[in-house]
Specification:
alpha+beta, five-stranded antiparallel sheet, 12% strand, elongated
């Protein structure tokens, strides 16, 4: 009798073990079965089923290779609050927003660029340039065994190029993109809709940034949301330890309403952290940092110099997170860029001050130093100064230009994530280059005066422009009002310079008047 009980107990243990194995195999197979939609069934030519009414999408089952099996949050509604807030912002605008269209019809926004010669184009479309989009600024990809290349030659119509490539071949000596270029609007749409096929961490950064590659081989830099719209930079934070804000990157692109057109296209996107980051990354260092928070939200933190730890993890709701996607510039192997130290760079030290902070005549020294002793570079610095002051961006330590164009070209306004940190404070030290040099382009000065008028009020124009973004509203209302206040401060600074040095010595005429056309010299 005792032996019979022992045998029955062994059989029971064996059955429990078999059931556990079966469940383990089913859990392994479930994500693979879920990834296969109807279109992947062999031999099925049936039309897809009718679309069901929209409802909150459940995050996909992740693979088992995480710290623990992630939970299925399908019972919770997706936290797509951005669309709701965007609708609220549109209602707040009252349907009668500022006349952006009227602004772009103004003569100041219709001035033509000088005629473009072959040397003024970054790329000659008809030349045999071998574009390798997937290797753009991602050196680790080049070490792998990949052979796909995109070859734009004279044999292919430009209309067939992907939008990111249209953006690249449109770059010239004077601007990153032309006014009202339809490829830019299409590229912004791609940034928020294209399928993400791979994700990797950007190396060398002080804060976490991700390189995302899309199905059309385009690439973008993703900066995830770290602060809510209304949060200001804590008063005890140094400028070099401030957060990089995704909405500041988006707003900086729209601030090209100043007609600089020097910020690469940026769009906001709501990203599924499970399906669009963790499931597609091959970066093991990134993948290992995913975990579930006590609130049952999916989080990760990656690797970087600042704010990359479980205490500063990026958490979704439950796995949705906002971020900005900035389109990549052309690969450095195709279009080299030169990095310049900003003459008015801050000390990046808790106690030391930079030379320009203690020497009121510092600009005179700068103007005797190449490339600031000739050409338009000093005027470009003044444009960048105004741009940064309107945003409250103190973190402009370097800038870049395209090497092909030498010193006679524009400054690229990259990395604007530390702008729009404080709406209650105007950092006047950002304006020091303008106050010391007392120089500004006439086209810039006239546009600033125009945007100070009630009918073209900068805050209203920005609000209308930002409503186009998918995660609008982008800026908290006090930030918009702060731009109007700062614009008046800039105009007062220029006015003081004119009173001191005379109009012709301060305002550089960059207009060519020929017959019925107005051309900017840039």
């Amino acid at each position: 009798m005792k032996m019979l009980l022992v045998r029955k107990f062994r059989v029971l243990i064996l059955m429990v073990f078999l059931v556990a194995c079966t469940m383990h195999i089913m859990i392994d197979l479930l994500p693979r079965l879920e990834r296969r939609g109807p279109e992947s069934r062999p031999g099925c030519s049936c039309p897809p089923p009718a679309a069901a009414p929209p409802r909150a999408a459940a995050p996909r089952w992740p693979s088992k290779h995480t710290l623990r099996i992630l939970q299925d949050f399908s019972a919770e509604p997706a936290s797509n609050l951005s669309s709701q807030s965007r609708e609220a912002a549109e209602r707040a605008a009252g349907g009668g927003g500022a006349p952006l269209a009227a602004l772009f019809e103004h003569p100041l926004y219709r001035a033509a660029l000088p005629p473009l010669a072959d040397g003024d184009l970054l790329f000659n479309v008809n030349s045999d340039i071998r574009f390798n989009p997937r290797a753009a600024e991602q050196p680790e990809w080049q070490n792998e065994d990949h052979h796909e290349e995109f070859l734009p030659t004279g044999e292919t119509s430009i209309d067939s190029y992907p939008n990111w490539l249209k953006f690249h071949i449109g770059i010239n000596r004077y601007e990153l993109y032309s006014r009202h270029n339809p490829a830019i609007e299409a590229l912004l749409q791609d940034l928020v809709s294209q399928k993400i096929t791979s994700v990797a961490m950007k190396s060398g950064g002080t804060q976490l940034k991700l390189i995302m590659t899309f199905q059309n081989y385009g690439q973008a830099l993703f900066k995830p949301m770290k602060q809510t719209r209304e949060q200001e930079t804590p008063p005890d934070f140094f400028y070099f330890s401030d957060y990089e804000r995704h909405n500041a990157e988006i707003a900086a692109f729209h601030l090209d309403i100043l007609d600089f057109r020097r910020v690469p296209p940026v769009a906001g996107r709501l990203v599924n952290m499970t399906r669009e980051i963790r499931d597609v990354t091959r970066d093991k260092k990134l993948w290992r940092t995913f975990f579930i928070s006590p609130a049952n939200n999916i989080c990760f933190y990656g690797e970087c110099s600042y704010y990359c730890s479980t205490e500063h993890a990026l958490c979704g709701k439950p796995d949705q997170i906002e971020g900005s996607l900035a389109a990549f510039l052309p690969d450095l192997s195709l279009a080299k860029r030169k990095t310049w130290r900003n003459p008015w760079r801050r000390s990046y030290h808790k106690r030391k001050k930079a030379e320009w902070e203690v020497d009121p005549d510092y600009c005179e020294e700068v103007k005797q130093t190449p490339p600031y002793d000739s050409g338009t570079r000093i005027l470009d610095i003044m444009d960048m100064t105004v741009f940064d002051f309107l945003m409250g961006n103190m973190d402009r330590h370097h800038y870049e230009t395209f090497e092909k164009f030498g010193n006679e070209t524009f400054i690229i306004h990259l990395d604007n994530g530390r702008g729009f940190g404080k709406y209650s404070h105007d950092e006047l030290s950002i304006l020091v280059p303008l106050n010391q040099c007392c120089r500004i382009r006439k086209s810039t000065y006239l546009r600033l005066q125009l945007l100070a008028k009630e009918e073209y009020k900068l805050s209203l124009l920005m609000k209308e422009s930002l409503l186009k973004d998918k995660i609008a509203p982008i800026l908290y209302q006090p930030h918009l009002e702060a731009m109007d206040r700062r614009l008046r401060i800039v105009l007062k600074a220029v006015s003081d310079c004119i009173e001191k040095d005379g109009y012709d010595n301060v305002v550089e005429n960059d207009f060519n008047m020929d017959a019925n056309t107005v051309t900017t010299k840039r």
